[in-house]
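pasting for the record
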Amino acid sequence: MENLLLEFQLKIARIPLAIQRYLIDQIDLNNRLIAIKGARGAGKTTLLLQLAKLHLPLSSSLYVSLDHIYFFENKLYDLAKQFSQFGGTHLLLDEVHKYPNWSREIKLIYDNFPELHVIFTSSSMLEIYKAESDLSRRAVTYDLKELSFREFIAFETQQRIQRYSFSEILERHNEIAADLIKKIKPLPLFDKYLKTGVYPYYKENETLYLQKLQNTINLIIEIDINAVEDLHYETLVKLKKLLISVASSAPFTPNITKLSEKVGVSRNMLVQSIKILERAGLVNELYKDTSGIGILTKPEKLYLNNTNLMYALAKENTNIGNVRETFFLNQFKGLHEINRSETADFVIDKTFTFEIGGKNKTRKQIADTENAYIAKDGIEIGFGNIIPVWLFGFMY
């Protein structure tokens, strides 16, 4: 354990604090068991270390990744027991899905060491509430989304710009945009964000970023999904084909029968595969109404989770209309209820209708709809019910 403590202190010394993810202020550290879910590359490890450096007693805290060689010969439970006996109070566990029987041992740690607080991260593929041991009534779960456009701007310009709520943007978008364009040039930044700015690791090597993102997609499918679903290799290959089909199309309205033939799986397996890909953080499903959605309910529309995935998979075949809608859906997902609109593209919280388009988009489609707006690309500032689409990247 001494080596683990030393490694932790070295990591803490090196972790930067200049840029912090939105979730760091939302986590209630009074809870004894906290789960942080998020797709590969979303920044879970950095978030854990920043939490420790900013808010936890370092002398009684320990961070360890569960793919560490320490666990080749040692059990997690035994580490927690020893750590607790030596006065440990906060145990931070990264990559729990790489450790066999992780949920059973975390449950035992929670039950047997009441003085110990545990924070753990997992791939979004793993469903904590369906884990083999019941963690649902013990763990408080947070979802870490990918970088918002606001957070990307912080990475690019080192400017910490405040968040704006959805209601603030609706009511004050002209004033907010006017203030922001004094500080930044939103349009070129937005274009870069859509192509290469969604995952924090883009800063490591921007030239090779999309190639690295392709590798990440392969790891999610071949390791994360396969570890949980135990699928045949042929099925994993078909999941990749499905992703490319979605990436290279206009906003994708799935014909399940035709798509199942194209991908080479049964209808039921295809619908299940879509839901697997959504849990893995690779696609977003869109429905007219989220009530009554079952395991075999097909989505009305299907999008990749974010725009960077589109450019990594479809390359020059990326559809700009699909890019805009994918961004809009991604920024709202998990923050507000978002559904397919009968008259336009999206409806938010069953009240506000949105049509997404380029700078030449007219109001014709929403002319007779109440509480209707156009989220327009290619403009710095809007007026009336026309709002720059990039401004919705400031909600988290």
